[in-house]
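Here is a tokenized protein:
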Amino acid sequence: MKILVTGEKSYVGLNLKKWLSQWNDRYDIEFISLKNEKWKSIDFSNYDVLFHVAALVHKKEQQEMESLYYKVNRDLTVELANKAKQEGIKQFIFMSSISVYGLDGLFGEKQIIDKDTPCAPISFYGKSKLEAEVEINKLNDKNFKIAIVRAPMIYGSHCPGNYSRLRKLAFYTPIFPAVFNERSMIFIDNLSEFLRLIIEEQCHGLFFPQNKEYVNTSQLVKLISNENSKKLLLSKSLGKLVKLVGYNKVAKKLFGNLVIDPSLSEYKQFSYCIADLPKSINISEKNIEKGV
């Protein structure tokens, strides 16, 4: 099966390739860059699946960048999907995000994304991703299947973003807030196995892969610390301080409650979740130690 992945340096794409290498010659993965016009001359008819993961991600958004977000995340996605359909690709997988809901997390109460939760993105990233979803869904038919993946926070060895930041804290701080929150997250190997399964089944529709169990941020940092033989004290006093500044966006993302209803994620009874939280942290830290 031939799979074309956008984003030559994509964390998710590169890990998918690594994961699929277990199946000998079953999968053949190639990468393309969308940073120039060269991709337009590539013959897509040679591929069965296009996995579109390349995007302009949400860092510090500035007003003058608004048009660029829509150009990259929406317009380019639609152009890519149209070319894929015209040239005979059977399945188009679009890596979206729960950012389409515009939720950061709440302190002291649950915040659950379920089938009735409205999409109300507040960032250019979330808005452009949602508009791309709407447009490419119009192309879905029996010969061209659109699969949209709304993923929560992804973590694993060498993962950029919040996991990398939390890992640094696990290494360099002797004390960390004890906050009893719940977040939906997904280990990169669990996500890779999920992607493998929907590729095998040629699935279409809207998907919400996540770990089978919710993650507590303080527990996550403690596990990273333990794996590296570091001493870390979880402080309830610091936890109370975090709650006092809970209006802060970063604090909400790290310590607020935000989960996906498990009923949205139980594809194949969660068989894609090959590692629970402790095992996933063990794998991640060992891979980092090995440099893989």
